[in-house]
Specification:
alpha+beta, five-stranded antiparallel beta sheet, 7 helices
Length: 481
């Protein structure tokens, strides 16, 4: 009986991969090649199993392959952790054949030895074997529920503590601005200096004075409801004072301009087969006319307000990091990162300002006008700022959190900028940190949250800034008392 254990195990594996591949794809014919490829471990099991003298090797290899395959397919079809989860099915047959099955065969050989220890050994095999197979499936299907991961998460939560303001409640006040489910952003939407605050839903946008929070105007969206606005949309004031919607890109989204009725004005797509990565509106040259900066597989480009290329700089698939305006001491920056290995900066005229080699672990996630001057900032468990030569300007530790976003804000015109840092844990731990540090690198505000806080800064005419926090429950202003 045991000598032919490979037969039912191989058949069960083939049924598993074919059933899940076909049903999981919605019965698409494209799933057939993947289903055929997924049978490779069980074909190997059948061929090798016929030649092995020790059936425990076959049992160990076959059951471990089934446990791993079940876990991987559950992670794809039942509990996907991202849009690219299905890629695991491409590599899983090789992983199972080359790694899982040899380890399983070794464990099977050991269990075979234990089985001969009479009752004690058999109880151990019947207890440890199913438990080990279950843990393999759990580790691949729901790694966040693996026992050691759960224990580590509980310990992390105990170290972090409950959500709430840890530092700064006596010096900062939180003012509710809006509790509606909406998109929020800040930008200059009139001809006057300073940014406005926009509160947007699918029906339109309320434009508020970012200082007084009073509604200045309401914009109604036309066209098909729900089609104009999304997470990668923003309002732009054109040279003729019209307000239009820019789709700034993200994933495979298009990058284009539309009027408030959804009518397409122009689209930037230098490669017809691929959508550009980013489209950033800005007025970096200070002439009062918005221009656009785009990244694509073709390079970094500046477009005029009509969507025509003013210049393009060839890059190795660089991602646009940020665009910052000219100051009294620093030219405008269009900063891009090539594959996390090289940072390149141009001014608004396309002249290269500098380039800097970086490593993947030190690749910047933001560039801001900080208290140490214009700084690149890389992520990790601290916010490390560095200049164009790669010299470290500051290093602010975040403890248990990993830096995800950063913004600079002057709470008054004469002050040096503060840094507002947002740190995250893994999504199962579900804790976030909003840390504000001054020019002495001292924490003046520290808040633990259980929702991701998005930081918005509205620039004012006097050079100061107004800080808003979108914490998933609405928008609030965080202000010095």
């Amino acid at each position: 009986m045991l000598e032919r254990a490979y037969v039912p195990l191989a058949i069960l594996g083939i049924v598993l991969v074919w059933t899940t591949s076909i049903a999981g794809s919605g019965f698409s014919l494209l799933s057939l090649p993947f289903a055929l490829w997924s049978t490779a471990p069980y074909a190997v099991l059948w061929i090798v199993g016929r030649r092995l003298q020790n059936p425990w090797l076959t049992i160990g290899a076959g059951t471990s392959a089934l446990a791993a395959d079940l876990g991987i397919r559950a992670s794809v079809f039942l509990w996907p952790r991202g849009s690219t989860a299905a890629i695991a099915l491409v590599f899983s047959p090789a992983y199972i054949t080359a790694i899982v099955m040899p380890i399983g065969a070794t464990a099977g050989w050991l269990f075979g030895k234990m089985w001969r220890w009479h009752i004690a050994g058999r109880i151990a095999v019947l207890t440890v074997g199913p438990l080990a197979l279950g843990l393999i499936t759990l580790a691949l299907a729901r790694p966040e529920l693996f026992p050691t991961t759960v224990l580590k998460r509980r310990a992390l939560l105990e170290r972090i503590g409950e959500p709430g303001v840890q530092i700064g409640s006596e010096t900062f006040e939180s003012i509710s601005v809006s509790t509606k489910a909406a998109w929020f952003f800040t930008t200059n939407l009139d001809a006057q200096p300073g940014d406005e605050l926009a509160i947007v839903d699918h029906g339109g946008a309320d434009v508020l004075d970012s200082t007084t929070r009073e509604v200045k105007s309401h914009l109604a969206f036309g066209g098909q409801p729900g089609r104009l606005w999304g997470s990668f949309s923003t309002l732009v004031r054109m040279p003729d004072e019209r307000l239009v919607v820019a789709q700034t890109g993200g994933g495979f989204s298009r990058t284009l301009l539309q009027d408030l009725n959804g009518q397409e004005l122009w689209e930037y797509r230098p490669n017809p087969r691929l959508a550009p990565d980013t489209l950033r509106p800005a007025d970096l040259d200070g002439d009062g006319r918005v221009e656009f900066y785009a990244s694509s597989t073709e390079g970094i480009a500046r477009l005029d307000s009509e969507g025509h290329e003013v210049w393009r700089r060839k890059t190795a698939n660089a991602a646009l990091l940020d665009v910052l305006p000219r100051t009294n001491s620093v030219p405008a920056w269009i900063a891009a990162v090539e594959y996390g290995r090289r940072v390149v900066v141009w001014d608004e005229n396309g002249k290269q300002v500098s380039e800097l080699s970086v490593r993947a672990e030190t690749s910047p996630i933001a560039v801001v006008d900080s208290f140490a001057g214009r700084s690149f900032i890389n992520g990790g468990n601290s916010a490390r700022g560095f200049d164009l030569q790669g010299l470290t300007l500051f290093d602010v530790p975040l403890g248990e959190f990993t830096l995800s976003t950063v913004a600079a804000v002057r709470f008054s015109a004469g002050d040096k900028p503060h840094l507002a840092l947002v740190g995250s844990t893994d999504r199962e731990t579900n804790r976030y940190r909003l840390l504000i540090v001054n020019s002495m690198h001292q924490a003046v505000y520290d808040e633990i949250l259980n929702r991701y806080p998005r930081v918005l800064v509205a620039s004012q005419a006097d050079g100061s800034g107004t800080l808003f926090i979108n914490d998933g429950q609405g928008l609030r202003q965080l202000r010095h008392k």
